[in-house]
Amino acid sequence: MNAPARHLTIIGAGLAGALLGILLRRRGWDVDLYEKRGDPRVQGYGGGRSINLALAERGRHALRAADADDAVMRHAIMMRGRMVHVGDTEPVLQRYGRDDDEVIWSVHRGDLNIVLLDLAEAAGARLHFDAGLDSVNFDSRRAVFRDPRDRSTREVPFQALVGADGAGSALRAAMHRVHDLGQRSDFLDHGYKELEIPPRGDGGFRIEPNALHIWPRGHYMCIALPNDEKTFTVTLFLPHQAGADGGPAFDQLGDVDAARAFFERDFPSALALIPDFDRDWAGNPVGQLATLYLERWHLDGRAVLLGDAAHAMVPFHGQGMNCAFEDCVALAGHLDANADLATAFAAFEAERKPDAAAIQRMALDNYLEMRDRVDDADYLLQRELELA
Ligand code: FAD
Q1: Residue limits of the FAD-binding domain (predicted)?
Q2: pLDDT exceeds 60 at position 379
Q3: Which of 168, 226, 246, 278 would disulfide-bridge 77, Cβ 3.0–4.6 Å?
């Protein structure tokens, strides 16, 4: 069977893959989306990392282009500014802008993904779950997908592949085997761990919901973003290994008692909000943070990468998803403007690569400045997670 014309096979039905599916269907493309995980609408979302995300105007602009903004915003919580928890003083809201037109939004990754998947399916995209890209024959234009549940495989013809399969992209690895993509990954010496602030006994939020909470402590910090089920996701950013300054690090906090003692000393006000600290600490992994640099994002007209698969970045500017969403709009636009896929992919890469590199740099600058200007709390507050 030959793949039909104007057909694209998207690898990864995460945030960027699902949004791109909607945009392309609305432009008349025939779209198949292959996702390694099961359908989150059936078995719950097993996203694995960064439970919620800051959605900024860049991302909303892309959602509007797909008529997805209203549906997403029903799950979003406004963050008017940051609330900084230092010492014993009551935190006050530092607004991002003059009024509620200059805000960012917290959205649960699972809710966001499900909304986008529903819209993609309603727009006519075919969704294939439990189908992880395994290998690609770019000469015969056939891709092999593996069902992680029983290891069975199936081979599928394609016209072109779009890699929206995240930082560990299998499509990127397959492309790299055919043509050197000039890939380099820089891992940070900080990692992260997530914890949860549950709702109060009466079902309300335990702390101010319309804010991004920050507990800055120099070389490390906690942040908390609200979720619409009245919880907060707390993220601790901390070095993996203790440095010469003897500061705390994940490698010293292997057991829960040591971690609890660290929180009692450095984050007592946050710890008081996390009744299941021991369970969360033991159960949630330490995540890695890295910047991915690629010299080439596409393989002539046969494959192209976007989102984290092309330019994963550290989260200190809160823009990875927002940037991935912008990629989707840009790629859809270039596919509209160019009948030839190789030309469209090249134009997309030429437009987006410098923008992504700039955002990667800003995210890394924020991290370095956070790390190095440890004594200047005011400065940190201005710079850290300045998301809008
Ligand atoms: P992903 O979201 O990673 O989606 C990839 C999809 O592909 C997944 O569904 C995966 O299951 C699937 N997949 C993987 N391999 C295969 C395969 N072989 N075959 C088929 N499918 C496959 N960004 C923001 O904008 N704001 C924030 O506040 C923010 N906070 C963050 C906090 C942390 C701690 C981290 C780590 C990241 C944060 N980001 C944030 C970045 C954001 O998470 C990413 O930029 C975004 O998820 C990228 O979307 P994506 O669709 O490209 O990749």
Answers
A1: 9-175, 289-358
A2: no
A3: 226
Range with the poorest average pLDDT among 46-55, 202-211, 252-261: 46-55
Choosing from 321, 352, 367, 386 the residue with most ligand 1 atoms within 8 A of its CB, the one to mutate for a pocket test is 321
Q: Whose CA is nearest to atom 39 of ligand 1?
A: 320
> Quick one: 298 and 244 in the same domain?
no
With a 6 Å cutoff on the Cβ, whether 291 touches ligand 1 is no
Q: Is the CB of 248 under 6 A from ligand 1?
A: no
Q: Which H/E stretch holds residue 11?
A: strand 7-11
CA nearest to 25, candidates 123, 111, 133: 123
Question: Do 72 and 204 fall into the same domain?
Answer: no
What is the predicted ipTM? Answer: 0.99
Task: Give the count of domains, the chain.
Answer: 2
Residue with tokens 């949860």: 196
Enclosing domain of residue 260: 189-287
Asked if the structure places residue 96 within a domain, the reply is no
- pLDDT tens for each residue of 10-49: 999 999 999 999 999 999 999 999 999 999 999 776 655 5
